[in-house]
Known about the structure:
About 40% of the residues lie in helices and about 25% in strands. It contains eight helices and ten strands. It has a six-stranded mixed sheet with strand order 6-7-8-3-9-10, sandwiched between helices. Strands 2-1-4-5 form a four-stranded antiparallel sheet, with helices on one face. Helix 4 (about 145-155) crosses helix 5. The protein is globular and about 50 Å long. It starts with 10 loop residues before the first helix and ends with a strand. The site of adenosine-5'-triphosphate has 12 residues, from strand 1, strand 2 and helix 2.
Amino acid sequence: xxxxxxxxxxxxxxxxxxxxxxxxxxxxxxxxxxxxxxxxxxxxxxxxxxxxxxxxxxxxxxxxxxxxxxxxxxxxxxxxxxxxxxxxxxxxxxxxxxxxxxxxxxxxxxxxxxxxxxxxxxxxxxxxxxxxxxxxxxxxxxxxxxxxxxxxxxxxxxxxxxxxxxxxxxxxxxxxxxxxxxxxxxxxxxxxxxxxxxxxxxxxxxxxxxxxxxxxxxxxxxxxxxxxxxxxxxxxxxxxxxxxxxxxxxxxxxxxxxxxxxx
Length: 263
Ligand SMILES: Nc1ncnc2c1ncn2[C@@H]1O[C@H](COP(=O)(O)OP(=O)(O)OP(=O)(O)O)[C@@H](O)[C@H]1O
Ligand SMILES: [Mg+2]
């Protein structure tokens, strides 16, 4: 603290001191509220009265209704339910890849549907990884290029080094220059997981990541995702039909006909 005794302060100096003090207060406040959700205990994902309807010719179809969900940082949550119950639709809404008919989704406290498309993409890029059932690798890029892509889009300059580390982590350092069609299903999914984790996301959403894999490969992939969940404290929301995988999660959420039935 600075104490001035006697004399008058020059107006410009006074202004600068005020500016510094204000910034300090703002930064301290920001740190207090932003400390990885610990202080505010703000859920990393929050869905409020989420609903999705689609109109097919004359028929209005309700895919999801009245979905209320809080997921805290570090949790591993499984979403289970029959085929057609709305799991993929819900995951797409939580990632802001699809828009709801009504309701809100907050990611790290930000109302994602109040953001414009660019802002939403930026928020996704800064905190979220998504693993699709069908891998969704870019066919014209090699394994390492696919993994580097999110970092390059974010303007990171050590993309190659980080991508190599991740591909080594998923056991694919011998397949760096392979194109997706030259990789097996399990290898492609491991590339997809490396790509999803390369930006160190706080949140990973995975839609049946082992749905297209044999049992042994699938369980390797799942082990890897739980390891990364533990090691990095990355929150995991996992859609699965597999009861054994689901039971490894800290919490199970059941979707029945588009409605949530939490455990
Ligand atoms: N754009 C759309 N237009 C019409 N119906 C849709 C649309 N998207 C999804 N649906 C329907 O909504 C329901 C839920 O779809 P969703 O893909 O979310 O199910 P799911 O629980 O992921 O199923 P699965 O386990 O088979 O992957 C399905 O009956 C599907 O046919
Ligand atoms: Mg699905």
